[in-house]
Structure formats: structure tokens, C-alpha cells
Amino acid sequence: MSSELARIRSLIELGRHEEAAAAAAEALTTDADNAELWAARAEALSKVEPKQALEPAQRAVAMAPDSPNVQRVLVQVNIRLDRVDEALAAIERLQTMVPHWPEPHTWRAVVLIRKIGKSKRSSPDKTLVAEARAAARRGVEAAPTWPNAHTVLGWTHLVVGEVEPARAAAATALQLDPNWADGHELMGDIHRQEGNVREAADAYVRAGKANPEHGATDRLREFQRPAAILGGVGVFGIWLVVRALTVVGRSGVGPGVMVFLVSTAVVAVVAFYLIRRSRVQNQLSSEAQTVIDLDRKMQRPGRFRRK
Predict the structure, then answer these.
(1) Cα–Cα distance for residue pair 183/153, rounded to 1 Å
(2) Neighbours of 283 (CB within 10 A)
(3) DSSP class of residue 2?
(4) DSSP state string for 140-171
(5) 28-45 burial, b if ≥16 CB within 10 A, otherwise e?
(6) How far is it, in rounded angstroms, from Cα 198 to Cα 179?
(7) CA 261, CA 240: separation in Å to the nearest integer?
(8) Distance (Å, rounded) from C-alpha 275 to C-alpha 133?
(9) What is each CA distance from 248 to 164, 263, 272, in whole angstroms?
(10) 3-state secondary structure of 66
């Protein structure tokens, strides 16, 4: 391995993905036939610009189709882009190359879980669930001390509502690595499914602390959706009341009565909205609410924006 390739991989491990992608692009100007450099660039880009990662990943595979590392990067890029069928095909090729690696088994389970989530069936496909769980268990057997293997196994249980096995898997993952972000996220999903808003939000905060790139605020933001949806319904309800009262007004009802009825309807809807919103927010810890508030400020036009 060249010293430059080693440096790029080190940057990726440190989470300095944009710097790694730029360094790989620079190295490729003098070594354009190096498949590992193309793979390194694809891996770095997959963390910051996933759509731009596919072309260098495919080029790397075309140059070195028998390289397990190159095939590994293609799998990860396809997963990031949610290309389910392409990811499964790449995983099968990787498994034939390195049958002893635990990662392909776990990745296969992850992709199958996503496939289940995309299904329009009213209930999860039992065949897919069984296949995903079997793959996850093979990952655990191949790497019993790898927290990600246990986390993925937990998700194969949670996707069909099996809370306790999912909780046990999350607990094992966090026992192996207390700072494992996906383990905290899984715990958050479990608490959320049980209706424990505060515990779920706190788990997502821990996931964000363990890995700032984890996207925990996306999960936290979902707690605001019920109130936002209710607000939209409330506005539509007010519009219906106004329309109805307009029709009534044409029938001879005085303007004073109309104003009173409209005002009452508006106050009732707004009060209901605020009560519902406060019930959600009152269940959040101050730390979780602070994360949500900060995230909201970063989303505002003219404020700091995410790259």
C-alpha cells in the first residue's frame, strides 16, 4: 500500500471524509489506474455525497473485480444509496470471495430489513424476515464481539414487533461498546414503539453524542410531527368552519353570531394544538429539547446550514 493511500484511509477512519475525497482525487491525477484509490474516493464520498460515490466505486470494481476491499466499498455505496437489489448482488459476490467475513452477513440483513420497510404489504413478509434474521445470526456467530452484528439482529426482531429480543440485542451491543451509536438508536426505537417518548428521545441524544454524524436529530425531529400534523388539520378545520358559517350567514344569521362562532372555533383548535404539542414536549428531557431547538435554528433560512 502506498503511503498516500494509507493516509487517505486514515482520514476516512478519522471521519475527515471531505479531506479524504479531495486527497484521493489529487492522487488519481497521477495514478488513474489504481483501483484502490478509486475505491477510497468512493468510500469517502459515500459519507458526504453518496450520489457521487457510485461512479468511482463502479470504476474500481471494473479495474479490480476480484478485490474484496473494492467489492466491499461497492456494497456500502449501494446501501447508502438504498439500491437494494444492487446491494444484495454485490454482497453475494463479496461472500464468495471472503466467506469468513462477518460484514456481508450483517449487511445482507440490513438490506433485507430495508426491503421489508419498502414493501407495501400490510404486514412484513415472513420469508424476508426469516432470511434477514438468519443472515444477522450468521453475522453474530462470525463476530460475537462486534456490536453492530447484535444491533442488526435486534432490528430484525423489532421490525416485526418483537420488543424483548430486540432489547436484549441492543443491551448486548451496548455492553460490548457503551458508545455504539446504533445501539442507542435501537434502544430509542424500542422505547418509541412502547410509547416512552422521554426515554426514546434521550436514547437518540446519546446516539448523537456517541457519533455526531449519526443523524440523531432526524429521529428527535419526528417527535414534533404529530403536533405539526395536528396544526395542519386544525387550519383545514378552521377553513371548513368558515365556509360552513359563510353558508349559514347567507341564510340570515347576524354578523355578531358569525364572529363569535368563528372565534370560538379558532380558539378551540389552537388550544387543542398547543395542548397536544406541550404533552409531547413535556415528556422530553431538557437536553433532548435543546438538541431539537438547536437543530431548528440551523434549518432556518439565513442561519447556519448543514453542508
Answers:
(1) 11
(2) 17
(3) -
(4) HHH-TT-HHHHHHHHHHHHTTT-HHHHHHHHH
(5) beeeeebbbbbbbbbbbb
(6) 20
(7) 12
(8) 41
(9) 56, 16, 25
(10) coil
Burial of 300 (0-12, 13-18, 19+ CB in 10 A): exposed
Give the 3-state secondary structure percentages of the chain, helix then strand then coil, rounded to 5: 80, 0, 20
Distance, in Å, from the CA atom of 188 to the CA atom of 301, rounded to the nearest integer, reads: 30
- How far is it, in rounded angstroms, from Cα 181 to Cα 211? 6
Q: Rounded CA gap, 233 and 226, in Å?
A: 10
**For 100-148, what is each residue's pLDDT tens digit?**
999 999 999 999 998 888 776 667 788 999 999 999 999 999 999 999 9
CB 111 within 8 A of CB 79: yes
d(CA 22, CA 2): 17
C-alpha cell at 54: 457510485
Length of the chain: 307
249-260 pLDDT, tens digit each: 565 556 666 566
Locus of grid cell 432490528: 155
Query: Taking the model in full, what pTM does it have?
Result: 0.72
216-255 core/surface letters (b: 16 or more CB in 10 A; e: else): bbebbbebeeebeebbeebeebbeebeeebeeeeeeeeee
Q: What is the C-alpha to C-alpha distance for residues 184 and 170, in angstroms, rounded to an integer?
A: 8
Cα distance between residue 231 and residue 109, in whole Å: 38
